[in-house]
């Protein structure tokens, strides 16, 4: 784990990447007839939008190189009964280290918060959390801009 | 025992700074050679500058870039340095104790240190003798032959020396004041002191030893190092790690480097070493997170920091949920807006990214680029306005690619919105003003 991490890399793509992915997922949502018709409850719509936001964020920022994005995408795909294929390279290493690790003592709450946090070492958890925070803030910015743009109308 | 010591060394070595630190701190190591400083230097907790100087001095000795085989404690390297001057092709007198670890790191730093060597040769010799003396005094093994072995840095001797050094380090701490005596005794021990000096060096040396042992292990068998290290750094990471550590030391000598060194008194169990490494890694990441989470600069302590982080993540997630609720309510307006925006983004990203950007786009979106646009949507304008903000191709799989922060992005977004809705609806200027005015406030909301 320590091999490549000396300067911890938590680069996050630009806003437009997030925006693009989010808009794409939203447009996909719009294509669903069930989404647009009035009989779709607001709650369901909210859930779908939220899920779309997370999935697009995971895809935009982490791709398959981040543990949290992978866990997120896998979870989302499971809900849709889809199958997601990841390159297993890093996951295996993580699993190996996990087996070496003893007990993830503290940071349990953090693990519950972060998608896929239960399978990481604590130091890896911190790193993933940092990246997750960055991506989340970027996604929030994008969504805020969208909302502002739409509501300013 | 040797292996355990090696492990200990290697474990500590991870945390140790690497030669660079010493070099930085001890640019003029030798001026006064403090024999006295030697013992203090040996003290792991020694934090006085002379000891640092000593360390750096000794450190430079060890870093023989050519001698990747790890001259053991670097004694041979030091000696050769003195004599051969710039001849760095030291014979591998000592088994790869892991000098390779700091050697690569030191290679970049060597030239300056090398310049210091000729002047310090005498000092080094005395230091070596001192270490020899310490060996003899403290170590039951410290028979002349073991010392001699130590001096030459043969493989077996290096093993012995590892143990001896450990003892030496322990004892040296206590023998701070016995400099003059030591010098005489060491002189008597022999002239090979020069070589041994490197070995007998302070805790730093000890760390070097660990490093060297670590490097050695990694060199010999990576699996072995891996097994020993577990979470410990491998040799390659040690080099960057050394550099980072050195950077740390340069900035704050009392903080990372010496602190790590001070753990000499702790258990030498490999498990505890791994634990220590792990803990330090975690604390490093915590510091990183501290910078990320706003308003956490004054907070100290892992638990409180953790709580803050958790709160922040939760707040971000709640924000996402809240915004998605808002978006759901403005649903009907999204049709044209989305299409236009998407088309614009797709086009721009295609412009920038060339072929690579095409891959992540689902094919269905491509069809969106060319549908008839409603309301005379002026795509060209938005394209140009947003285009300048995009500077790199879209490649979500890359993960960590860098882009310039586009502060004007929101402004462009507003422009797009206006173009979409403004055709015949509302004059763009007041809306633009309102939108941009609301934007900063929204941003402030986003980052409380």
Automatic annotation (TrEMBL), chain A:
Keywords, comma-separated and alphabetical: Nucleus, Transcription, Transcription regulation
Cellular component GO terms held in the UniProt record: nucleus
Location of the IBH1-like N-terminal domain: 18-79
Alphabetized InterPro entries for the sequence: bHLH_AtIBH1-like (IPR044549), IBH1-like (IPR044660), IBH1_N (IPR059002)
GO terms (BP aspect): regulation of DNA-templated transcription
Any Pfam family hit: IBH1_N
Protein name according to UniProt: Transcription factor IBH1
Organism for this UniProt entry: Raphanus sativus
From TrEMBL, chain B:
Keyword vocabulary terms for this entry: DNA-binding, Nucleus, Transcription, Transcription regulation
Single annotated GO MF: protein dimerization activity
Underlying gene: LOC108818265
A Pfam family matched in the record: HLH
Protein name: Transcription factor bHLH49
Biased composition (Basic and acidic residues): 1-21, 211-222
Taxonomic lineage from the root: Eukaryota, Viridiplantae, Streptophyta, Embryophyta, Tracheophyta
Transmembrane spans: none
Organism of provenance: Raphanus sativus
Primary location recorded for the protein, binned into one broad class: nucleus
Residue span of region Disordered: 1-36, 175-254, 427-448
UniProt subcellular location: Nucleus
InterPro entries noted in UniProt: bHLH_dom (IPR011598), bHLH_ZIP_TF (IPR024097), HLH_DNA-bd_sf (IPR036638)
Alphabetical list of CDD domains matching this protein: bHLH_AtBPE_like
């Amino acid at each position: 784990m320590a091999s490549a991490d000396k300067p911890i890399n938590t680069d996050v793509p630009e806003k437009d990447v997030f925006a693009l992915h989010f808009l794409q997922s939203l447009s996909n949502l719009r294509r669903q007839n069930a989404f647009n018709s009035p009989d779709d409850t607001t709650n369901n719509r909210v859930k779908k939008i939220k899920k779309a936001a997370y999935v697009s964020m995971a895809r935009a920022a982490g791709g398959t190189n981040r543990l949290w994005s992978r866990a997120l995408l896998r979870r989302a795909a499971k809900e849709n009964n889809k199958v997601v294929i990841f390159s297993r390279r890093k996951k295996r290493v993580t699993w190996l280290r996990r087996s070496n690790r003893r007990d993830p003592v503290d940071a349990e709450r953090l693990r519950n918060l972060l998608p896929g946090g239960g399978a990481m070492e604590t130091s890896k958890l911190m790193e993933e959390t940092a990246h997750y925070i960055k991506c989340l803030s970027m996604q929030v910015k994008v969504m805020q801009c969208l909302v502002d743009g739409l509501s300013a109308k | 025992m040797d292996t355990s010591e090696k492990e200990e060394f290697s474990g500590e070595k991870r945390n140790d700074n690497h030669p660079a630190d010493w070099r930085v701190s001890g640019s003029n190591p030798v001026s006064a050679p403090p024999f006295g400083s030697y013992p203090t230097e040996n003290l792991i907790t020694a934090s006085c500058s002379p000891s640092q100087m000593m360390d750096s001095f000794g450190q430079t000795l060890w870093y023989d870039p050519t001698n990747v085989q790890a001259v053991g404690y670097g004694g041979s390297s030091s000696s050769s340095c003195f004599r051969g001057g710039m001849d760095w092709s030291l014979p591998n007198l000592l088994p790869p104790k892991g000098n390779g670890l700091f050697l690569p790191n030191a290679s970049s730093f060597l030239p300056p240190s090398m310049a210091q060597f000729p002047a310090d040769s005498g000092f080094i010799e005395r230091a070596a003798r001192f270490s020899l003396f310490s060996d003899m005094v403290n170590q039951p093994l410290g028979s002349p032959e073991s010392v001699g072995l130590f001096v030459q840095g043969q493989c077996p001797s290096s093993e012995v020396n590892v143990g001896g050094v450990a003892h030496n380090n322990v004892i040296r701490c206590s023998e701070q004041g016995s400099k003059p005596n030591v010098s005489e005794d060491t002189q008597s021990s022999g002239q090979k002191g020069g070589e041994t000096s490197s070995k007998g060096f302070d805790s730093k040396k000890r760390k070097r030893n660990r490093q060297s042992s670590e490097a050695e292990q990694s060199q010999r068998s990576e699996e072995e190092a891996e097994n020993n290290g577990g979470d410990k750094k491998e040799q390659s990471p040690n080099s960057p790690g050394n550099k980072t550590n050195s950077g740390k030391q340069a900035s704050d000598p009392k903080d990372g480097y010496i602190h790590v060194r001070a753990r000499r008194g702790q258990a030498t169990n490999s498990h505890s070493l791994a634990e220590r490494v792990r803990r330090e890694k975690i604390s490093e990441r915590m510091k990183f997170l501290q910078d990320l989470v706003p308003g956490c600069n004054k907070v100290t302590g892992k638990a409180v920091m953790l709580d803050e982080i958790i709160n922040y993540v939760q707040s971000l997630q709640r924000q996402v949920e809240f915004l998605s609720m808002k978006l759901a309510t403005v649903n009907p307006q999204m049709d044209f807006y989305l299409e236009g925006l998407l088309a614009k983004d797709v086009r721009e990203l295609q412009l920038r990214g060339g072929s690579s950007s095409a891959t992540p786009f689902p094919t269905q979106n491509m069809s969106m680029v060319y549908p008839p646009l409603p309301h005379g949507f002026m795509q060209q304008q938005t394209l140009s306005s947003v285009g300048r903000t995009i500077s790199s191709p879209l490649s979500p799989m890359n993960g960590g690619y860098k882009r310039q922060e586009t502060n004007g992005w929101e402004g462009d977004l507003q422009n797009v919105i206006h173009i979409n809705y403004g055709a015949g609806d509302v004059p763009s200027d007041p809306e633009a003003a309102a939108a941009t005015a609301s934007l900063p406030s929204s941003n402030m909301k986003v980052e409380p």
